Every structure is written in C-alpha cells, then in structure tokens.
Amino acid sequence: MKNLLLLATGGTIACRETENGLSPALDGAALLDFVPQLHTFCTVDVRDLMQLDSTDLTADDRLAMAQAVRQHADRYDGFVIAHGTDTLAYTAALLHHLLADLTKPVVLTGAMLPMGAPDSDAPRNLLDACRVAADSRAGVVAVLCGKILAGNRVVKYHSTRIDAFVSAGVPPLGVIGTDGKVRWDVPAAPPAQTAPDSLDPHVLLIKLTPDLDPTFFAALHGYPKVILETFGAGGIPARLESAVRALIESGTRVYITTQCVAGGVQLHHYAVGRRAEALGAISLGDRTTEDALAAVQCGEI
Ligand code: ASP
C-alpha cells in the first residue's frame, strides 16, 4: 500500500456554482470522497494549500507547492497536486525545475468539469493521478484524460474540451488504461543532482505581432529579463532591430522563444535569426513557452 500526499489548491476540479460563477469550494478531503476506489492501492493524506482559481495563483503559491512537497518528501511515496487547468502548464513547468532532483513522483491533475458534475472528468483524473503517484517513477508529470505528460511539455490547447491538453513536441510519457494500469511508453530519466530553490518572478514575456510598435521597447529599458516570443524558428524583425539593441544595451537580458507549440528556436537557420544572435539575444531552444519562462525565472539560462 503506497502512502500519498494530496495538495489541494482549487481549480474547476474543486468548484461549485455560486452567484458569481464557478468558484473553488471543495477541500482535498471532499475531493477524495468521490474516489473511494483509491483505497484499494494507496492511503492519501491531505494538505489544503489554497483554494483558488489557477488564474489567481502567484509565484509565492507555486513556491509553496514546491516547499510542501520537499517538506514531506521523506514521509510519502508520491504527491498529487489538484490544480486549476488554466495555468497548470505553468506550474508543471516550474515544478519540473524546482523539483528536478526529487526521487519521488509529483503528479499534477485537474478537471474541465467540477467533481460531482454530470460526466465530469474529475474522478477519473484524480484516480489516475493517484495511480501514477503510486507508481514509484520519479519526476514531475501531469495526468489528464488518461495521458501522462512530462511536466515541461504540458500545453493547454483547448478551453472547453475534456481532452484539453497536449504533450508539446514529444509523445506523452505514458497512459492509464481503462483497467487502471499505468503504462509507460518512454524510459525514465534519472533525477538531476541539484535543483534551484528560488525563482525571480520578474521575467516579462512579450508576444511579437507583425505590427508591434518599436517605440514600445523604450518602456522596458532596465527591466531584468525579457522573453520575446517570436515567429517560427525565431528572429528579430528588421524594423525592431535598433529597439531591441537599445533594450539589451540598457542592461536587460533578452531571450528568444517561439510562438510555435513544438520544434523550438533555431536562430542560426535564417538571417532574421542570426540578427537576433548578433544582437546578443539568448535562444531558449526547444522549449514550450511555459517551460522557457520557468527556466529563465529559475535562473537556469
Ligand atoms: N478557471 C479554472 C482554473 O484554472 C479552470 C479549470 O480548472 O479547468 O482554476
């Protein structure tokens, strides 16, 4: 029998209808009441960390999740974090970095429909997440709609479908069958030797648009770190070149990622990319935007 810790944070999975719309109301113990089957393979303790729509989560809240896992790492075989789906990909990517050295499973899950609602995905997701957390494979993953997604590859691509998440650029790590069996399709990677223990939330992410006004960049001078989400394989438009140069000269570190969901940045490929390299912008390589943000916030690049 495995010993798990459920960290409840809110999200649709815990929501009830109020006069102001859906709002988190169920605590972790109430969520567990809907999945009595899990007592056949694990025991679950609960910590109610917060009760928020994930839109309202801050860097401090995400650090609190990482700290709660670390604090209890010796006492439990695995961890489940019940989380809103809207920003689950950001939290998964951040925990992938902050808990990179952990030797236990950390599984984020959520739901598109509240626990107890007709046809809700919540019971299945929570049960599947517990199955994966009890499966002894170290690492931060998300478990949603029967799929196991690597923490740094999670992308929410649909705002209403039950199957709302994809694994960006790589296949899912595995699946949970309708018989409840966990099947891993990708070999496990060993935990890292070390992990960052803090983060700098002062990272700005800017999506380039075809007509972005170059004068806008002057307002950012001196801001610590700016990620430009650029087009395709990455690059700086000629009409923004001097504005980005001035930004870098002001002391801002400028990073390049891509608006493409998969494939990453390859600055050396095109002249527009080499322009970015020549300016001193830093490529974030093959990362999702969420993982790029997490890597920069954690000071890994
Ligand atoms: N707004 C909700 C949240 O992210 C959506 C969800 O959980 O599905 O907290």
Walk me through what this model shows.
This protein is of the alpha/beta class and 301 residues long. It has 2 domains: 183 residues, 3-Layer(aba) Sandwich (Rossmann fold), CATH 3.40.50; 95 residues, 3-Layer(aba) Sandwich (Rossmann fold), CATH 3.40.50. It is built from 7 helices and 16 strands. It has an 8-stranded mixed β-sheet with strand order 4-1-5-6-7-8-11-12, with helices on both faces. Strands 13-14-15-16 form a 4-stranded parallel β-sheet, sandwiched between helices. Strands 2-3 form a two-stranded antiparallel ribbon. A hairpin with an 8-residue loop joins strand 9 and strand 10. Helix 2 crosses helix 3 and helix 3 crosses helix 7. Aspartic acid binds next to loops.
The biggest sheet amounts to: 8 strands, mixed
Predict the CATH topology of the largest domain. Answer: Rossmann fold
What would you report as the Rg, rounded to the nearest angstrom? 20 Å
Q: What ligand species are in this complex? A: aspartic acid
What value does the average pLDDT take?
98
Share of residues in strands = 25-35%
Overall 3D shape: elongated
Q: Say how many strands there are.
A: 16
Secondary structure class reads alpha/beta
| Uncertain residue ranges | none
Number of helices: 7
The portion of residues assigned to helices is 10-25%
The CA-CA distance between the termini, in Å, is: 41 Å
- Arrangement of strands in the largest sheet: 4-1-5-6-7-8-11-12
Order of helices and strands: EEEHEHEHEHEEEEEEEEHEHEH
CATH class of the largest domain: Alpha Beta
Q: Write out the CATH superfamily name of the largest domain.
A: L-asparaginase, N-terminal domain
Oligomer: single chain
Q: What is the count of structural domains?
A: 2
Q: Architecture of the largest domain, CATH level 2?
A: 3-Layer(aba) Sandwich
